[in-house]
Design a protein that fits this description.
Blueprint lengths: L3 E9 L2 E9 L2 H22 L7 H8 L5 E2 L2 H16 L9 H13 L5 H9 L6 E4 L4 E4 L12 H15 L5 E5 L2 E4 L9 E4 L5 E4 L2 E7 L4 E4 L2 E4 L2 E2 L4 E2 L3 E8 L2 H14 L6 H5 L4 E7 L1
Antiparallel strand pairs: 1-2, 2-6, 3-5, 4-5, 6-7, 7-10, 8-9, 10-15, 11-12, 13-14, 15-16
Helix pairs in contact: 1-6, 3-7, 6-7
The structure holds adenosine-5'-diphosphate (ADP) and magnesium ion.
Length: 289
């Protein structure tokens, strides 16, 4: 059967979500990709920190001091985030939302938060302030006004889900890209894999694997000659000031995305330790001070 290439782009989770598939005809491609985008939209409604009515934001309000049951999807992302937080001693931490908000404020005002504001936000951050119960599939927060933030892990998870939907629709030869997160399924016809361009030049090939890039070079605010990236260093509460580019190849998107963010915070040589914790993951970090 002859397969043709189809490509779609729609904005999801604040970035261009691109889906490329090989399918026998346009109708099949459109039906599969529409279902994949619908799935990503559902996950966005669960995990967005921008939408006041997302499941995540409602959780932040309701779970202070008491267990709140959450959807299986949200729970599994929080669980993976929490596991990585423990493994990295909090370098990766989905409870940094209050600090991310301060960073966004600094980006719009051009000023760093004052010390008291920073201290208050730090007191509302820290993975030990979030408890998860596997049995109840529930979350409990130890402090009021916490802000959870899945910006470092949700896009990779969404790409994984989109690929699963495409497979279910009989379109397994697919590539999904959301910003710096890429998940590849079966390869294009007559090719060993999907050819992916790398930011620093060159290409790599992906099949049934994921590749994520994370770093301080794209999104940052410059204040008094210092660049603060949108990735928070939980040790300072501020954006990373090191120049760093982390890349992770892994078996799935949730792993690649979260490890790339973690690797950017950890820097070399600590980031390499992640390879021992996640079988098959390849971590590379380029940084300078
Ligand atoms: P991008 O969102 O640009 O693809 P990342 O995957 O590295 O890049 O995620 C960065 C996002 O992760 C930030 O915008 C923020 O929402 C969140 N974040 C920031 N610092 C941390 C951290 N230390 N641990 C986990 N998530 C973080
Ligand atoms: Mg990430």
């Amino acid at each position: 059967m002859q397969l043709h290439r189809f490509e779609f782009t729609q904005v999801r989770m604040g970035v261009d979500a691109r889906i490329i598939v090989y399918a026998p005809d346009e109708e099949r491609a459109v039906r599969a990709c529409r279902a994949a985008y619908t799935r990503i939209s559902e996950l966005e409604q669960m995990m967005s920190d921008y939408r006041a009515d997302s499941e995540l934001n409602r959780l932040c309000q309701r779970a202070v001091g008491r267990w709140v049951k959450v959807s299986p999807e949200l729970f599994s992302v929080l669980w993976r985030g929490q596991k990585l937080a423990q493994q990295t001693d909090g370098a990766f931490d989905v409870t940094v939302g209050a600090l991310v908000r301060l960073w966004r404020e600094a980006r719009s005002t051009g000023k760093l938060p004052d010390e008291a504001t920073l201290r208050a936000a730090r007191a509302r951050s820290g993975y030990r302030l979030m408890e998860l119960s596997f049995q109840r599939r529930a979350v409990r927060l130890k402090t009021a006004d916490m802000q959870l933030d899945l910006g470092g892990i949700a896009k990779g998870y969404a790409c994984d889900n989109a690929l699963r939907v495409l497979r279910r629709y009989g379109v397994p030869r697919a590539l999904i890209q959301m910003g710096g997160d890429i998940v590849a399924g079966d390869p294009p016809p007559d090719a060993p894999g999907w050819r992916v361009e790398l930011a620093e030049g060159g290409t790599t090939t992906l099949r049934n694997a994921a590749l994520s890039t994370s770093g301080s070079t794209e999104q940052y605010v410059e204040i008094d000659g210092v660049r603060y990236a949108h990735i928070i260093d939980p040790r300072t509460g501020l954006g990373l000031t090191r120049l760093v580019l982390a890349r992770v190849r892994a078996r799935d998107g949730i792993t690649a995305d979260s490890l790339a963010t973690a690797a950017a915070v950890l820097g070399e040589p600590d980031a390499k330790r992640l390879e021992r914790l996640y079988k098959g993951a390849q971590v590379s970090v380029v940084s300078s001070n």
